[in-house]
Every structure is written in C-alpha cells, then in structure tokens.
Design goal:
370 residues; mainly alpha; DNA polymerase, domain 1; 3 domains; 6 strands; 50% helix
C-alpha cells in the first residue's frame, strides 16, 4: 500500500502494454510506458523507478540510471512545447547524433555519461565527422543545456559538459552576402519572374529578419507612421524588439496590405500562413540564384548577412548596426565588420592614384626657396 503513494501500474485503452505513474526526484508526477504486457516485469520496472528516485531525493545517488533515450524523449517534449520549432529541431539533431555515438560506444544510461564521454564525442565530431569548430561548439552548448535540464529534474547533481573545453575556432565558414551588383540582378529577376515573392525577399534583405520572424510577422507589428517594425518573438531575447524601416519598404508593404485578407503580412500563394517547415521560399531562392548566376550565397539566412552588408555600406557604425541586426553581443557584429568593410575599401582605393601618371605630372613641382 505504501508504494502506491509514490506510483502504480495502470492500463490505457490505446495501448496493449502496462503503463506506470510515479513521482520523480522533484516530486513531479510522471507517466511512462513499461513497454511490456507482463505485469511482473512491469512491476519490477516501477519498483526500480521508485527506488531510484527515492535515492536521488535523499542524495544517496548522484546520477539517475535512466536510459539516455528515455531522458532525450522527455527533454524534446519539454522543448517542443515551450520553444520555437527551429530550437527544437536543433536539439533533436544533436540528440540523434549523440545517441548514435553512445550506441557505438556501448553507453546506454545517464549514469555512464561523463566529462570524458563528451570530450570523446567532440573529438569524434571534429575528426571522424570533419565538422567545423563552430558546429562542435554548438553541440557542446546543446549538451550543456540537456544536462542542466537533467539537474533541474534531479536526475544529475553535476553537469558532465561543464568541464569540456571549447574547440578553438580557426575554420569558420565565410559569411556570404549579395554584392550591390548582385542585389540589383537578384531583385530584377525576382520582380520579373516571381512577383509574388518580390515583397518577401525585399523585406528579408531590407530588415535582416530571421526566417521564423518573417513568417510570423503580422500587420499589427508594423508602425507605418513611425517607420518601426516590431518583432514580437525575437531569437535569444525574452522581450519584443524593434527595428527601423525606410520609405521604400513602407511603400511596398502598404501596397501589399491593400490586397491582403490575412492578419499575417506574408502568406502562401493560396492565402494561408506559412508553416515553420515550408520549403517554398527556399526553393524559389535557389531558382533565382541559378537564373542570375549568383554563387556568393546559398542559404536563406545569407539574405540577413546581405542586410548587414548594406548597413555597413550605408555608413552606420558598429553599435548602430548591432541594434538594427538585434545582436546580443557587440563582438557578433564586429565579426561581420571584418568581412564587410566598405569605408576602409573606399579609403584604401585612393592608393591606386599612384598609378595615374597624368595626375602626378599635373602636380606643381616643389618650390625651392633658396
């Protein structure tokens, strides 16, 4: 009878196996499939859970013996319910790769994952998978988040990813962006051949919005009078953010609004809101790039890079660009400054005057006051 206070077995109409409920290390009620129709085996599994969580609650045990696969499932459920799809997808990708590595290493349980395990995983990504340093560091950051989740649910006392050193970044992928001439070709072809997508790509390039921000943009988020566009769910920020927009973009959006019957600024060709997993915008981008023979960019996010490039060309300083791009750290913006340096390029181009012999001949000879 005492055990039933903390957990019990039960049947579900939609399942042929036994299910169990129990209280975890934080005292939160949980449900889980026992994956067996044998009641005795199911009861043993329940008792194992009860014993383990009791030990975790009292501090007798530091790490849960829960299978990593079960933990990962719980972690993904948590993130899918609370965060944008792109964040969930990123975590899922890392979990799948890490699970393959654990399987290869004959590791199944949380209690078997140590700092050494994660160090070997990063080495595996770097050497066997030939991933870039930034990719490896993203995996490390992702694992750190996973095990913090485990700590918050009393499944671990210490984060095994905390002691892992980041990979030194010396092979970062060059940021792609449209040059002014490529921008002209890109927009001309888009307007002529894909007029429906012209406002979408124009807004992409002239605001630097991320894909998920663009497809969630609503008419109520645009202040035409004050030339401000609000981002209600910005990435990496908890509060709404805003950016400035110019008259050219305002004119295009106002014309689009007259024809719109949706609360969303951009919709599919059938008038429905764009889904998170839509690929139509990406396919159209690749078609336009092929028709214009542009090879400098390959992915949608590089239209955001183009916006950054245009801001540098417009003469904005790094702090102003940081605010417009909504970067959380100045060093992120400075990373673009090393690539997009129009002001330095304009000044250094004056050196070519040394090759202009006629200009040098026209210069008056130095005066001799002696």
């Amino acid at each position: 009878m005492t055990a039933k206070k903390f957990g019990d077995l039960y049947r579900r109409k939609d399942s042929s196996v036994w299910w169990m409920w129990y209280y975890d290390g934080n005292g939160k009620r949980r449900q889980e499939s026992t994956k067996t129709d044998d009641k005795e085996l199911a009861r043993k599994k329940l008792l194992t859970r009860l014993t383990e969580y009791q030990a975790l609650r009292t501090g007798e045990k530091a790490v849960s013996d829960m299978p990593y696969s079960h933990f990962a499932e719980e972690f993904l459920k948590h993130y899918k319910a609370r965060y944008p799809y792109e964040t969930f997808k990123s975590h899922r990708s890392v979990i799948n790769e890490f699970a393959r590595f654990l399987d290869f290493s004959s590791i199944s349980f949380l209690s078997e994952i140590t700092t050494s395990t994660i160090d070997k995983y990063i080495t595996y990504l770097r050497e066997s998978k030939e991933n870039r340093a930034n990719t490896c560091n993203n995996h490390l950051k992702n694992l750190y988040t996973q095990f913090n989740f485990a700590i918050s649910h009393n499944l671990m006392k210490n984060n095994p990813a905390k002691g892992c050193k980041k990979v030194e970044v010396n092979d970062a992928k060059q940021k792609g962006a449209l040059s002014p001439a490529e921008y002209q070709r890109f927009m001309t072809v888009t307007k002529q051949m894909y007029p429906f997508y012209y406002p979408i790509y124009y807004t992409f390039i002239h605001t630097g919005l991320r894909f998920t921000e663009l497809i969630k943009l609503k008419w109520q988020d645009i202040d035409f009078e004050n030339k401000v566009l609000w981002i209600m769910q910005p990435k990496c920020k908890k509060k709404p953010d805003y950016i400035s927009i110019h008259d050219g973009l305002i004119k295009i959006l106002e014309n689009l609004k007259k024809k719109s019957n949706s609360e969303y600024v951009f919709t599919t060709e059938t008038g429905l809101p764009f889904g998170i997993r839509t690929r139509k915008i990406i396919r159209r981008l690749k078609e336009i790039l092929k028709k214009t023979n542009i090879t400098g960019i390959s992915i949608l996010h590089e239209l955001r890079h183009t916006h950054c490039s245009l801001l540098f060309n417009a003469g904005l300083n790094t702090r102003e660009i940081m605010e417009q791009m909504r970067h959380t750290e100045l060093r992120t913006t400075e990373g673009y400054a090393h690539i997009f340096r129009p002001e330095a390029n304009r000044k250094i181009s004056k050196l070519q005057r040394l090759d202009d012999k006629k200009r040098l001949l026209r210069r008056p000879a130095p005066r001799n006051d002696k």
